[in-house]
Amino acid sequence: MTNATLTGQDIAEAQGAVRGLLDNVLATTGTTATEYVVLRVISARGEFAPAALTEFLQGQRQLDLDEIGVLDLLGGLAEKDLITGWPPRASGPVRLSATGAAEFAALNDKVAAVTARLYGGMDGAELTTAHRVLRAVIERATELRHQLSDTGH
């Protein structure tokens, strides 16, 4: 028996499948998956200076956002009163508003219920290993990208 090897294709297909599931869960909420991810980032990581949040979100390649896309997205969240501290109304720090915190909590409950079903029945030790491996892949890929950029490759 040949051991299965984890490939970039496996990771990409898993990301696509989970993203599709998230899109489905959020379909009736009026919130896109990208908006949900941004609310989650702000909720989990705390407040950001506007420029730091813009840079961070641009660096999240899975979001596929350039600077204009980030500015439009965050402007839309501010217009919906889901975040505060976003220019031109304010100059930071960006955080969830009371409305945003309540909306995120409701969305997160919906997502958590489906996530429990997604991972239900999977071995906890295997999930821990998968998490550790994926974190290592992220770190190594980031390091290699910087190394290759520094050497002109």
Q: How are the SSEs ordered, and which strands pair?
A:
Layout: H1 8-26, H2 33-45, H3 50-58, H4 67-79, E1 83-84, E2 95-96, H5 98-119, H6 124-151
Antiparallel strand pairs: 1-2
Description:
- InterPro entries: WH-like_DNA-bd_sf, WH_DNA-bd_sf.
- It comes from Phytohabitans houttuyneae.
- This is HTH marR-type domain-containing protein.
- A two-stranded antiparallel ribbon has the order 1-2.
- The protein is mainly α and 153 residues long.
- 68% of the residues lie in helices and 3% in strands.
- Helix 2 packs across helix 5.
- It folds into 2 domains: 10-120, Arc Repressor Mutant, subunit A; 122-153.
- The protein contains 6 helices and 2 strands.
- The longest helix has 28 residues, at 124-151.
Oligomer: single chain
Strand content: under 5%
The CATH architecture designation of the largest domain is Orthogonal Bundle
Tell me the number of strands: 2
How does the helix and strand content classify structurally?
mainly alpha
Radius of gyration, Cα only, in angstroms? Answer: 18 Å
Helical region count? 6
How far the N terminus sits from the C terminus, by CA atoms, comes to 38 Å
Largest sheet: 2 strands, antiparallel
CATH fold description of the largest domain? Arc Repressor Mutant, subunit A
The CATH class of the largest domain turns out to be: Mainly Alpha
Estimate percent helicity. Answer: 55-70%
The number of domains is: 2
Low-confidence stretches: none
Shape verdict: globular
Q: CATH homologous superfamily of the largest domain?
A: Winged helix-like DNA-binding domain superfamily/Winged helix DNA-binding domain
The residue-averaged pLDDT reads: 93
The neighbouring-strand order within the major sheet is 1-2
The string of secondary-structure elements, in order, is HHHHEEHH
